[in-house]
Amino acid sequence: MQKDWLTREGYEVMTAIDAAVARRLIRKADFDLILSDVRLPEGDGLSLLAWLKKEKPGIPVVIMTEYASYPDAVKAIKMGAKDYLPKPVHRECLFEIVKELVHPAVTIQHSLERLFKRDSAKAREALHLAELVAPADISVLILGANGTGKESIARTIHFNSPRKDEPFVAVNCGAIPPELIASMFFGHVKGAFTGADTDKKGYFDTAKGGTLFLDEIGTLPYHTQSSLLRVLQENVYMPVGANSERRADVRIVAATNEDMENSITEGRFREDLYHRLCEFEIHQPSLAECPEDILPLAEFFRKKFSDELHKETSGFSTDAERLMLAHSWSGNIRELQNRVRRAVLISKVPVIAASDLNIRKSTSDNVTKIVPDLRPIKDDEAEKQLIIRTLESCNGNKTKAARMLNINPTTLYRKMNKYGIE
């Protein structure tokens, strides 16, 4: 069943009935990901994991476990498994993990799935702009660091547009081998090159009538940029080996984490293509820019993974919350999600501790604390903004905000009155 799901999404999948068959396949071929049950007809997934760490240490492994087998999942994570999947395995959970670990070149979506909502002012502004530009059939460029949710903005644009009933095709430009880019984008006809045994559709055909989302557009080779520019200018393209042009009927939404001005100055990206792609620009902020998103998102993921694992958790300790607010989150929402998932898995009590998050102090020691002790601050405006930010991160809970600021509630109320904070 899982093979069928993944094959339909464009992955190449091989299956093995037991550990012995799996080892033979792994020795013969290169794999991007191993999915293994803990219990196998012969051998077991944990032994296979131990063998993989010695024989093929670079292959990520995901272990599948029964809901009740938390010790197996914990042991697998400690042995080096990248993640776990609780059984019965749900299609959406499988795709989420596989996509994160394998980074496929293309995915196709037919319905909007909004997994979480960011409530910070900057994130709300990005979402507002996406909904505002959605009805206008113009190209959009989304800027932002990795892991900030740029694709969710692209999906919002598509599913609020007149093209919402047609495919949303997401392409990871950085995952396509340079020699295959023309064929993958525009398709090819039978006999166009060695191995072209049949006609094959490209991304422009697959997304016909819908939206083509070009993620990591800054990695696109320079020679391919000319072909893409022509499609955007003239709305026509030619499959590899074909004699006639086809009409392009897609909306282009692109995204990048690169500084496009530098890429243009350094000659890595065409300026005319940039202006074609950037008819409307949206900046998706990082978690570092929106610290008030951290705790609400952490709480969302805690509830999600608690339900997924049927494991009871009630929240985070104050130390855990302070650690999350102080952490730099260079991996953004993706990193936060992974750390909370792990914490839910290994937590021995309902309240998740700072140690469960596995955030090394060295990663945040040099980061300015988002919520330091309030008392040393001398600048009134800085103090006011710190109180506002902390209250937002605590959803207005003044008792919790006072704990985060290391002051008593009476002092917090007094300072709120002083600065006119409601």
TrEMBL record:
<dbReference type="Pfam" id="PF02954">
    <property type="entry name" value="HTH_8"/>
</dbReference>
<feature type="domain" description="Response regulatory">
    <location>
        <begin position="1"/>
        <end position="102"/>
    </location>
</feature>
<keyword id="KW-0597">Phosphoprotein</keyword>
<dbReference type="Pfam" id="PF00072">
    <property type="entry name" value="Response_reg"/>
</dbReference>
<dbReference type="InterPro" id="IPR058031">
    <property type="entry name" value="AAA_lid_NorR"/>
</dbReference>
<dbReference type="GO" id="GO:0000160">
    <property type="term" value="P:phosphorelay signal transduction system"/>
</dbReference>
<keyword id="KW-0067">ATP-binding</keyword>
<dbReference type="InterPro" id="IPR002078">
    <property type="entry name" value="Sigma_54_int"/>
</dbReference>
<dbReference type="GO" id="GO:0043565">
    <property type="term" value="F:sequence-specific DNA binding"/>
</dbReference>
<dbReference type="InterPro" id="IPR011006">
    <property type="entry name" value="CheY-like_superfamily"/>
</dbReference>
<dbReference type="InterPro" id="IPR027417">
    <property type="entry name" value="P-loop_NTPase"/>
</dbReference>
<dbReference type="Pfam" id="PF00158">
    <property type="entry name" value="Sigma54_activat"/>
</dbReference>
<feature type="domain" description="Sigma-54 factor interaction">
    <location>
        <begin position="116"/>
        <end position="345"/>
    </location>
</feature>
<dbReference type="InterPro" id="IPR009057">
    <property type="entry name" value="Homeodomain-like_sf"/>
</dbReference>
<dbReference type="GO" id="GO:0005524">
    <property type="term" value="F:ATP binding"/>
</dbReference>
<keyword id="KW-0805">Transcription regulation</keyword>
<dbReference type="InterPro" id="IPR003593">
    <property type="entry name" value="AAA+_ATPase"/>
</dbReference>
<dbReference type="InterPro" id="IPR001789">
    <property type="entry name" value="Sig_transdc_resp-reg_receiver"/>
</dbReference>
<keyword id="KW-0547">Nucleotide-binding</keyword>
<protein>
    <recommendedName>
        <fullName>Sigma-54-dependent Fis family transcriptional regulator</fullName>
    </recommendedName>
</protein>
<dbReference type="InterPro" id="IPR002197">
    <property type="entry name" value="HTH_Fis"/>
</dbReference>
<dbReference type="GO" id="GO:0006355">
    <property type="term" value="P:regulation of DNA-templated transcription"/>
</dbReference>
<feature type="modified residue" description="4-aspartylphosphate">
    <location>
        <position position="37"/>
    </location>
</feature>
<keyword id="KW-0804">Transcription</keyword>
<dbReference type="Pfam" id="PF25601">
    <property type="entry name" value="AAA_lid_14"/>
</dbReference>
